[in-house]
Design brief:
By secondary structure, the protein is of the alpha+beta class. 29% of the residues lie in helices and 16% in strands. Helix 1 (10-36) runs parallel beside helix 3 (117-128).
Length: 322
């Protein structure tokens, strides 16, 4: 199956991370307000990067005797003071939300500008500019995802053209996960975000039927075994490049996160925050109304490439105050 269309070292970087961590708490609310009012002209704005620990998952590689930096693995993880599961809360009065007006009905999204600032700004900019109007859900897989929002026809931008005009970096937050209803950026490599997004649709029943956490534990154990086998091989880098999306380090995933997936369903393999190879998909929103619409779209008849046989159109994306 095709993968989804997806740095700091030294003492100076540690100091910078600590400074950002202190600044982030006081500035998060202000940043959220500024982001929700974003316009296309703001694309050159400077955005925060990491605000917390850099190595939540890459410790798995270090424990095996590998230096993650050798593979170009230098994750930036945005830490949040919000509790696990906060993304399921309804928006507060005055918050900015997005409404996808589709052929099947409306889907309302709560945006997370404090936890994914550049990604939310990109989405808002594109929506306000009408770039999502008359686009389609072009990839639909029941009990997995519905994917759409491609903007532009430039083959150099396979994930669509962002509001910045080029691909932009991933933003992995330690409190945002690809649970059912989470909205994430589609990519085909690290830091390759454009305009495409997807909505996770996997139910708790499907998550369990597919093996649940036992499946991911086995996957991580297999990855560790393969890494050991490739240790002295010239193919080691190629193995990491090709299989990095499978490096979900279940050794570091907290129990409350596992419980969240058990209860709500979703696709933890897409979470960058727990990926030892710094791969994954940026979560930037959550469906708060219209999950029934998502489920209807997911059940649409598709061809062998998961393309709906009848186009499912996103007529427009409305940005409004809740």
């Amino acid at each position: 199956m095709k993968r989804f269309n997806k740095t700091l070292t030294g003492s100076a970087c540690v100091i910078l991370s600590l400074m950002l961590a202190l600044l982030f708490v006081g500035c998060a609310q202000k940043k959220a307000e500024e982001t929700s009012k974003a316009t296309v002209d703001e694309a050159e704005e400077t955005y925060p990067v990491s605000t917390g620990d850099e190595a939540m998952a890459i410790g798995g590689l270090e424990a095996l005797g590998f230096d993650p930096a050798v593979f170009g693995i230098e994750p930036n993880i945005i830490e949040s003071d919000e509790p696990v599961g906060f993304q399921l809360d309804m928006p507060q009065k005055g918050d900015t939300v997005a409404v996808l007006h589709t052929d099947y009905g409306d889907i309302t999204l709560r945006l997370f500008p404090a936890q994914a600032p550049k990604t939310v700004t990109n989405f808002v900019n594109l929506a306000k500019a009408g770039k999502y109007n008359n686009t389609t859900f072009h990839r639909v897989i029941d009990d997995f995802v519905i994917q759409g929002g491609h903007n532009g026809e430039d083959p150099q931008h396979p994930n669509g053209i962002s509001s910045y005009g080029d691909e932009f970096e991933d933003e992995f937050c330690d409190k945002l996960f690809n649970i059912r209803g989470a909205v994430s950026m589609a990519n085909n490599a690290a830091d390759s975000n454009g305009s495409q997004f997807f909505i996770n649709q996997t139910t708790p029943e499907a998550f369990s039927k597919n093996g649940g956490w036992n499946n991911y534990d086995e996957l991580w154990e297999n990855v560790k075994t393969q890494l050991k086998n490739y240790r002295d091989s010239s193919l080691l880098q190629a193995f990491v490049d090709e299989n990095g999306d499978k490096f979900i380090n279940t050794d570091v995933i907290p129990q409350d996160v596992k419980d969240l997936y058990n209860e709500k369903g979703g696709n933890p393999n897409l979470d960058g925050v727990f990926n030892a190879a710094d791969r994954g998909n940026t979560v930037f929103a959550q469906v708060v109304e219209g999950m029934d619409v998502v489920d209807m779209i997911a059940k649409a008849e598709t061809d062998k490439n998961d393309v709906p046989k009848e186009s499912i159109v996103i007529n427009s994306v409305e940005i409004k105050t809740y």
